[in-house]
Design brief:
With 201 residues, the chain is an alpha+beta fold. It folds into two domains: 98 residues, Arc Repressor Mutant, subunit A (Orthogonal Bundle), CATH 1.10.10; 94 residues, no CATH class. It has ten helices and four strands. Helix 5 packs across helix 7. The longest helix has 26 residues. The model has no long low-confidence stretch (mean pLDDT 93).
Length: 201
């Protein structure tokens, strides 16, 4: 007696592998075709579990790629997002690990790009950037690698200059300007250094 059978779902474009104990999993039409499955096909327990693993991995992998296509993610953030969307934790862990090993996702690259994006939109100091990246579940070592890369690119002082000029365009008094920048995490000494350079222009 077969352990499971492949049956048609609610629509012509979906199928389900249904086991005799009532357990089941959905098979998208694309995978139904690519795995050369047939309606009414019987599976033994090993075949059922093997097919389940292949289907769940591929569905999770495809969703991860779709999320990455919208914007870059860190590994833990991507894994958490998959789980929140109802994907199995073990498969989410495996998929994100595989994506990291293939360099499709990279936490240092993500952290660096995140820093650059923040600095273009709303420049902030290093302490605030570190805090935001920790909230994205990036490891301390990867954060420091990204921060060091950012500082080596010599864009840190340019970010302070952008922030100062935006506040100056609003006619912000200098004392308030300095206080605002300190709250954004910029070092007081660096603020004065950039202000001095601007005054010389």
């Amino acid at each position: 007696m077969a352990y499971a059978t492949i049956i048609r779902g609610d629509t012509r474009q979906s199928y389900t592998a249904l086991a005799k104990d009532g357990s089941s999993f959905f098979i998208p039409n694309t995978l139904y075709k690519s795995f050369f499955l047939k309606e009414g096909q019987e599976l033994n327990e090993v075949e059922f579990l093997s097919l389940r693993e292949k289907v769940l991995y591929k569905v999770t992998y495809d969703k991860a790629l779709a999320l990455i296509a919208r914007r870059d993610h860190g590994q833990k953030e991507l894994c958490m997002k998959l789980i929140q969307k109802g994907f199995d934790k073990d498969f989410s862990d495996k998929v994100t690990l595989d994506l990291r090993e293939k360099h499709i996702i990279d936490d240092v690259r993500f952290a660096y790009q995140y820093i650059m994006s923040r600095q273009r939109k709303s420049p902030e100091g290093i302490p605030l950037l570190r805090m935001r990246l920790k909230q994205k579940m990036i490891s301390s070592s990867d954060i420091e690698k990204a921060v060091n890369q950012y500082l080596e690119d010599d864009t840190y002082f340019a970010a302070i200059q952008i922030a100062i000029k935006r506040l100056q365009r609003k006619n912000t008094p200098q004392e308030k300007l300095i206080t605002t920048l300190i709250k954004k995490g910029f070092n007081k000494r660096d603020i004065f250094e950039v202000l001095s350079d601007i005054e010389k222009e």
